[in-house]
Amino acid sequence: MTEKLNELLTEWRNPDTENLDALPTSEIVKKLNEEDKKVALAVEQELESVTKAVDLIVESFENGGRLFYFGAGTSGRLGMLDAAECPPTFGTEPSLVQGVIAGGMSALVEAIEGAEDEPELGREDVEKVGVCARDVVVGIAASGRTPYVLGALEEARKRGAKTVALSCNPGSALGALVDVDIAPVVGPEVVTGSTRLKAGTAQKMVLNMLTTASMVRMGKVYGNLMVNVQATNGKLEERVKKIIVDATDCTYAEATELAEQAQGDARVGILMKLKGISAEEACKQLDQVGGRIREALEKK
């Protein structure tokens, strides 16, 4: 096991940071910044694979499927974070995008390291959440070989789900199992083996792409405006008003009135203003096109 670990690029010692502990603070943070600059370029090399994964996710959503993230440690937490941010940002049901972490919810705030070594736990968690053939399952593991994630992907494939691997080591065990392999090569970490650094940043960037691009394709965004945002606090209530202003060129006062009549739904407010219709009619037209505001605006 140790020998295999030493073969992983993410576990190699970085020659540019071997004297890290002897550096002043300014040089330590400079080294971190210099290494972080490499992450976006590594992700860029995987855009074709990311595109394929997004297309699988959109097809799944259109057929009543869901997106699941399975991971352990940092990778699992990143999946949970991305899933948790979809409902407030895109107005989705919490069940549409779900994160599952080895060791359960307590693993979000404390390290439960042993849980990642059990492939059976991954298989059991896939069964618990009811993964089916309509779904897409993304296994996240910087190493590309975490047993928990391997078990989850194996079980997901048995159930007919489409599968995606997200790691930072090319030619990984995870990658050999799946329909789409995404593996941005970020190289050795500043602190040897600490994959919460560049590897974690790369994973977060890819997860951002997977959900954001999928939600855009599903009509959850108008132009570049997050029109499905849920106005659940003061800041988001103001954001809804700003979205209405940006989309219609109306005044802030008018946007405030529209947002109130639309009960905080920016899409309804925009339709009311641009088509000169009531909130009730705007809701009806949105329902007819599955909530896609652009289609509602273009419909005669």
Overview in brief:
This protein is of the alpha/beta class.
Folded structure, characterized:
The protein is built from twelve helices and five strands. Helix 6 (147-158) links the parallel strand 3 (136-140) and strand 4 (162-166). Helix 8 (234-248) crosses helix 9 (252-261). With 300 residues, the chain is α/β, with parallel strands linked by helices. It folds into two domains: 9-217, Rossmann fold (3-Layer(aba) Sandwich), CATH 3.40.50.10490; 234-298, Helicase, Ruva Protein, domain 3 (Orthogonal Bundle). Strands 2-1-3-4-5 form a five-stranded parallel beta sheet, sandwiched between helices. The model has no long low-confidence stretch (mean pLDDT 95). It has helices at residues 2-7, 25-44, 47-62, 73-90, 119-129, 147-158, 198-217, 234-248, 252-261, 266-275, 279-288, 293-298; strands at residues 67-71, 97-101, 136-140, 162-166, 180-182. The chain is 51% helix and 8% strand.
